[in-house]
Write a structure and sequence with these properties.
Blueprint lengths: L2 H9 L4 H5 L5 H6 L6 H12 L5 E7 L8 E8 L6 E7 L1 H22 L3 H16 L3 E7 L5 E8 L5 H13 L3 H9 L3 E3 L11 H6 L4 E9 L2 E10 L7 H30 L2 H10 L3 E5 L5 E4 L8 H4 L13 H14 L3 E8 L5 E13 L2 E11 L1 H21 L1 H44 L4 H18 L1 H32 L8 E3 L1 H11 L1 H4 L3 E7 L5 E3 L1 H23 L6 E10 L2 E8 L29 H12 L3 E7 L3 E9 L20
Parallel strand pairs: 15-17
Antiparallel strand pairs: 1-2, 2-3, 4-5, 4-8, 6-7, 7-8, 9-10, 9-13, 11-12, 12-13, 14-16, 17-18, 18-20, 19-20
């Protein structure tokens, strides 16, 4: 080790043995690095020592008590005996800049989306904790009496469960003193070391929970505070101006947006009724008020069937097809009875008589505590639904395009042996024709009672032609050649039919479909993705027709099968072994279940909760977009109200389960209890 190693070790409180360096296990030193990527550092160096790679470079966090720090490890083999040259370079400035940019970007996006205080603080806690290496965070807001109440918590993936339990006990048994001081002083408050005698009475509880330091920052500006965000760390951390400044600016920006929103709301409430009426007329949606008897009491704009003046006092159901009246009466009754909000899609005739699609939200109209009617907001989404249909078709065609090379190869193989068989039959037909021509000469001589010498000569020539044609071989091989042609053409037709059905335009409504047949088509067009790395086993049980959007289900099955093939390919790379993909279908009560299993590398526990997040992928650049499982989650759980879960074991394999209602699931309105989905790992 060089002098920089020794100086750095001494400055960080390492013992003399590690500071001296010589004779110390370098892998043990790496394992002591307090970083989420410490395990990756160890694996990289082990791979170098084993000769599996020649060099490695990786950035990792290693925060000190006084500041956030990042380092770049660079290592390379310098001789055949496995000797490594390793350097650690301080890249903290770049790391702090990137972490700060993450926080600023998250704040900007939250403000652009105009999220409420709770969501804003939830995002700010998560991105700040992840970017600057905090272990736990708490979000406090004041109640009606002015006391701070815990509303939300966040923890890093590596935080032990007993530490989290300790924090919850701590917040229950002692007042949030750090948060309270930040609240009353309207400025950040930092406790660098809970062991210090100058800290508050809460220090003992925090130390018992396994934490060493924390700080709290207000969300607000000036004299108005909205909330407090408090962070905890398992290591001692001195005040960090970068983190403090980021949080103060984030809180101030949120306060500025909140002030602006309040000002606009106040202006709107103070505006005369003519302004409100003008706004309602300009809204790109139909807004109506309905009394408990279903009579229209307000309409912001004229409808294709009547003007808004003519509509007042009439039945609101007149705007919808009669086939929907019973369903709509039920929705109105639920809103009036429970006060819940109903969200649904429906259709209504436009000015030209063409049916248009609308997205409708229906909620209660209140007078103090009484529900006196309902308000509906209906926005036309005909163009949106058309674009979504076109996009879904384009997405499937994109998937087909991705598989085009493999499908072309699958078609080429049967076409090749059909071609070979046709060429064989063509050559054989020429030989047989030569024999027939000679035999026709024999028949002609016999019919004309020609000389014996001429007949014998013709017979001899026919015998020579027959021997050249090898008729015995022809009689044996020609039927097989015809069979090969028929088989090859059947295989090509199967592939083309599967491609056609997979890329067929999306259904507008759910319809009964043969799920097993759809799976067989999808497996046909994905064969080239898995055939070199895995064998395929199908166990398709007896299923009744399943009411679904089969094109979307095809896309989900394709994504899961391709993912399974990639997982197996990663595990068997460099060997001549093949894995196994198993696709099963079976009935489970009033649901159809599809399971897709692979013998791949499995899903690590630390990323299991993120596999359905959009843009999250573990594949190398160019091979994964992070959209496949996110799309599958949306299609199965949201669109079909089904279930999507998985079971996985590292180095053993993964099984995904799709559970679909046999009768389908019509779109349901959102009421007081939102539909919940769960990922089971």
């Amino acid at each position: 080790v060089n002098e920089s190693w020794r100086a750095f070790a001494r400055a960080n409180g390492a013992d003399a043995r590690i500071a001296d360096g010589v004779g110390v296990s370098y892998l043990d030193v790496l394992r002591r690095v307090r970083s989420a990527t410490a395990g990756e550092l160890v694996e990289a160096v082990q791979a170098l020592l084993a000769g599996e790679r020649e060099s490695a470079s990786q950035v990792y966090s290693c925060h000190s008590p006084t500041q956030p720090r990042w380092f770049r490890l660079e290592a390379k083999r310098i001789d055949a005996d496995g000797t490594l040259l390793v350097s650690h370079t301080d890249v903290s400035e770049q790391g702090i800049a990137e972490a700060s940019l993450r926080v600023r970007s998250a704040v900007a996006q939250a403000l652009t989306e105009r999220v409420p205080l709770m969501e804003f603080s939830r995002r700010l806690m998560r991105v700040t904790g992840e970017a600057f290496g905090w272990d736990f965070a708490v979000f406090w807001i004041p109640d009606a009496a002015g006391n701070l109440c815990c509303m939300e918590t966040w923890s890093s993936p590596g935080t032990p469960a007993h530490l989290l339990a300790g924090v919850r006990n701590m917040t229950a048994e002692a007042s949030p003193e750090t948060a309270t001081r930040a609240w009353t002083s309207r400025s950040p408050y930092w406790v660098a070391n809970f062991d210090s005698p100058s800290t508050t009475a809460r220090s003992d509880a925090a130390a018992r929970a396994g934490f060493r330091s924390n700080f709290a920052a207000p969300v607000g500006a000036g004299r108005e505070m909205f909330a407090i965000i408090e962070f905890f760390s398992r290591s001692r951390r001195e005040p960090d101006l970068t983190t403090i400044e980021l949080l103060l600016r984030a809180g101030a920006r949120f306060a500025a947006e909140e002030y602006r929103a309040r000002e606009l709301a106040q202006r709107a409430s103070d505006a005369p009724g003519t302004t409100v009426d003008a706004v309602m007329r300009c809204m790109p949606a139909f807004v109506s008020a309905i009394d408990p008897e279903g009579k229209v009491r307000f309409l912001n704009r004229s409808h294709a069937r009547s003007t808004k003046e003519e509509a007042l006092g009439t039945d609101w159901l007149q705007f919808f097809p009669s086939s929907q009246h019973d369903e709509l009466r039920g929705r109105l009754a639920r809103v009036l009875d429970t006060g819940a909000v109903e969200a649904f899609e429906t259709s209504s005739a436009g000015p030209t008589g063409r049916m248009l699609s609308f997205s409708v939200h229906m909620g209660p109209l209140r007078d103090c505590d009484r529900i006196v009617g309902a308000v509906t907001v209906a926005k036309e989404i005909t163009a949106l639904r058309r674009h979504q249909t076109e996009f879904a078709t384009a997405r499937r065609l994109t998937a087909v395009g991705t598989l085009a090379a493999g499908v072309a190869h699958e078609i080429n193989t049967p076409v090749q042996f059909v071609s070979d068989s046709i060429h064989f039959l063509r050559d054989t037909s020429r030989d047989i024709r030569a024999v027939l021509e000679k035999l026709q000469v024999v028949r002609s001589i016999a019919a004309s009672r020609g000389s014996r010498e001429a007949l014998e000569s013709a017979l001899a020539e026919a015998a020579v032609a027959e021997e050249a044609a090898d008729l015995e071989y022809v009689f044996e091989s020609a039927p097989k050649a015809f069979d090969r042609c028929v088989d090859g053409l059947d295989r090509v037709a199967t592939i083309v039919r599967a491609m056609k059905e997979f890329a067929h335009p999306s259904q507008r409504e759910m319809e009964p479909a043969d799920l097993n047949h759809a799976i067989e088509n999808t497996l046909t067009i994905t064969r080239n993705e898995y055939k070199y790395v895995a064998d395929l086993e199908t166990q398709l049980g007896d299923l009744p027709p399943v009411t679904c959007c089969i094109n979307d289900i095809n896309q989900v099955i394709l994504n899961l099968v391709v993912n399974a093939a990639h997982a197996i390919a990663e595990r068997v790379r460099g060997s001549d072994q093949k894995g196994l993909i198993t696709v099963r279908t079976f009935r489970e009560g009033d649901h159809a279940v599809v399971s897709i299993s692979d013998t791949g590398a499995g899903i690590a526990e630390d990323i299991a909760d993120r596999v359905f997040e959009p843009f999250f992928t573990t594949k190398e650049v160019g091979k994964g977009t992070g959209q496949g499982l996110a799309l599958a989650w949306d299609v199965i759980t949201e669109k079909h109200r089904g279930e999507l879960r998985f079971e996985s074991q590292v180095e053993v394999g993964t099984t995904f389960f799709i559970r679909l209602p046999l009768e389908g699931s019509p779109h349901r309105g959102r009421s007081g209890g939102a539909h919940e989905t769960h990922t089971v790992c």
